[in-house]
Specification:
Blueprint: E1 7-17, E2 21-28, E3 32-38, E4 57-63, E5 69-74, H1 86-102, H2 110-124, H3 130-143, E6 165-169, E7 173-177, E8 183-184, H4 185-192, H5 201-215, H6 222-230
Parallel strand pairs: 3-5
Antiparallel strand pairs: 1-2, 1-4, 2-3, 4-5, 6-7, 6-8
């Protein structure tokens, strides 16, 4: 981030720092994931008070030469977004936790920034549904280099056959199996093209979660635990 220049960004996570300050993880177009400290932000008289909320779109100015930047200005008129209900909250928590866990610090990625911006715009317009979340997960994996191989059978390195059913092995791809819960060749190609209308939602969710869990080295996401508590 360029010191003393306005920077649009998204707030991914914020936590207390001492009695009055906040450390925030933000995602910016120019610098990727960056940590900033907002000194005195918990003080009601601070110019930062009430602006560093989870899931917000921000416009900020920072200073500092170290990895941890210091927040100096915030545009209070810039458009912000907050979650509307527990399931909206879960979606934001989940997506932001993925971003925090999978993104390296300080590495700009314009394609990923645009992907995340589009997702936030959909959420802002109440257009986020389960299919949109699955598409974001699959696109996120692609952008970060963890994309699923939807082209060839992992065993024979050949095109998928219409007569077979395929199961998915994380970090490897699809292989022929007798699993009744597997995917046909048409389903695999449909997922590749993000045409998810005809795909069983549970199968698709299990596929994306298996691929993401492999990227996380088996670590559980805190947001999934949160969702278990609010799920009826």
């Amino acid at each position: 981030m360029t010191p003393h220049s306005w920077e649009p960004c998204f707030l991914l996570h914020a936590r207390s720092f001492g009695d009055t300050s906040i450390i925030a993880d933000i995602f910016s177009e120019s610098s990727g994931k960056v940590s900033i400290v907002a000194k005195g932000a918990k003080n009601p008289r601070s110019k930062f008070f009430g602006h560093l909320l989870p899931f917000s779109a921000l416009k900020i100015m920072v200073t500092g030469k170290s990895e941890m930047k210091t927040l100096t200005q915030i545009d209070s008129n810039y458009l912000s977004q907050s979650a509307k209900g527990p399931h909206d909250l879960y979606t934001y928590l989940y997506v932001n936790e993925l971003m925090i866990r999978l993104l390296p610090k300080g590495l700009a990625n314009l394609e990923l920034y645009q992907l995340y911006s589009t997702f936030v715009d959909l959420a802002r317009s109440d257009a986020i549904n389960e299919s949109a979340l699955r598409i974001f997960e699959l696109d996120l994996l692609d952008v970060l280099g963890y994309g699923i191989n939807f082209e060839t059978d992992m065993n024979e390195n050949s095109e998928f056959k219409d007569s077979l059913v395929y199961s998915y092995k994380p970090e490897r791809g699809f292989y022929p199996s007798s699993d009744d819960f597997g995917f046909t060749a048409d389903e695999i190609y449909s997922i590749k093209n993000r045409d998810l209308v005809s795909i069983d939602k549970l199968k698709l969710k299990q596929l994306s979660q298996a691929a993401i869990t492999a990227c996380l080295d088996g670590r559980e996401l805190s947001s999934r635990e949160f969702f278990k508590k609010i799920k009826i």
